[in-house]
Design goal:
Order of helices and strands: EHEHEHHEHHEHHEHEHHHEHEEEEH
Structural class: alpha/beta
Strand content: 15-25%
Largest sheet: 8 strands, mixed
Bound molecules: alpha-D-ribofuranose, calcium ion
Helix content: 25-40%
Strand order of the largest sheet: 3-2-1-4-5-6-12-9
CATH architecture: Alpha-Beta Complex
Number of strands: 12
Number of helices: 14
Distance between the termini: 20 Å
CATH topology: Inosine-uridine Nucleoside N-ribohydrolase, Chain A
Length: 321
């Protein structure tokens, strides 16, 4: 069983990734830390409790709230994609009896910071812990700054972030997680910690259409299936207006899949750099993928291919059962 810590900015696709991880027997989720990204970290933490409340969990991972602001840049969020509350505005929904349709889980939030919980767990499980980073890398870079030696004990970091051979999803050159905190991403890629990055190049290969979601969930009428249908609507409407189809990319679910079903994915080794200063290119991830022997030693694996049909089948098999 792989011990993991999930760092997240839920976020509609983060919610899908968290549900998949919680239903993956190959993973032991030791902790979940929240960070500002899609929404402010305080909202992200509330969203995490609402996501955990969807399942009848007998025990909960440790939870700690992380950083509110990027290392240098002003915070840019994505409520226009994920809804004001970050979960498709389902937080305001109530049942006929007036109770919240999606109540918060009754679990404690740690009194220590997300950064300190990361360091505590890396120390507790040296060379056994993988961090799965689904939002901006602010918490992880702060942990590296605070105790670089400790963080070298990480087994690896699997992160959703970057884009190499396609356009970005915030600017033409930058993917959201790296765009929000490029200085943090630069620190992480420069840290020497083993990194596996899952960029838009591969997450764009997995498309969850509204039609497929409805087909897969039509025989269910429980809190989880209703959450899947209701929480994704705002995002799917954004995609219809701006991307050209009614659906969404389940970006953050792919790093979970890489850990549980690596045979569905293909990656290459490369030397990745992050632009932190460019006016037009801030947040751009740069890697020489021409296949020529780069003069720089690789610092990361870049996932570039996925068996999308098999992954979507796995996703629904697990998330609905
Ligand atoms: O670019 C996609 C990433 O940005 C995903 O993690 C999504 O949740 C947003 O945080
Ligand atoms: Ca995310």
């Amino acid at each position: 069983m792989q011990r993991i810590l999930i760092d997240t900015d839920p976020g509609v696709d983060d919610a899908l990734a968290l549900l998949l991880a919680l239903k993956s027997p190959e993973l032991k989720i030791e902790a979940i830390t929240t960070v500002s990204g899609n929404v402010h970290v305080e909202q992200a933490t509330q969203n995490l409790l609402r996501i955990l409340g969807l399942l009848d969990l007998s025990e909960f991972p440790m939870i700690a709230q992380g950083e509110a602001q990027p290392l240098v840049k002003l915070l840019v969020m994505a409520e226009h994609v994920h809804g004001e509350d970050g979960l498709g505005n389902i937080s305001e929904l109530s049942n006929h009896d007036g109770c919240p349709r999606y109540p918060l889980a009754d679990c404690n939030i740690s009194t220590i910071s997300g950064v300190d919980l990361i360091l505590e767990l890396v120390n507790r499980y040296p060379n056994e812990l993988v961090i799965v980073a689904l939002g901006p890398l602010t918490n992880i870079s702060r942990a590296i700054q605070k105790d670089p030696e400790c963080m070298q004990q990480l087994q690896s970091i699997v992160l959703m972030g970057g884009v190499f051979r396609e356009y970005g999803n915030v600017t033409t050159t930058a993917e959201f997680n790296v765009f929000v905190d490029p200085h943090a991403a630069h620190e992480v890629f420069s840290s020497g910690i083993p990194i596996h990055t899952v960029p838009l190049d591969v997450t764009h290969q997995v498309v969850l259409t509204g039609k497929r979601l409805n087909a897969e969930t039509e025989e269910y009428d429980d809190r989880l299936s209703n959450f899947l249908r209701e929480s994704t609507q705002t995002c799917m409407e954004f995609y219809r207006e701006n991307v050209g189809f009614y659906g969404l990319h389940i970006h953050d679910a792919l790093p979970i899949g890489i850990l549980t079903h690596p045979h569905l994915f293909e990656s290459v080794n490369a030397y990745v750099q992050v632009e932190t200063e460019g006016n037009l290119t801030s947040g751009m991830t740069v890697a020489d993928l021409r296949g020529v022997h780069s003069i720089s030693k690789p610092n990361a694996q870049i996932c570039l291919k996925v068996n999308a049909d098999s992954f979507l089948k796995l996703f629904f098999q697990r998330i609905l059962n």
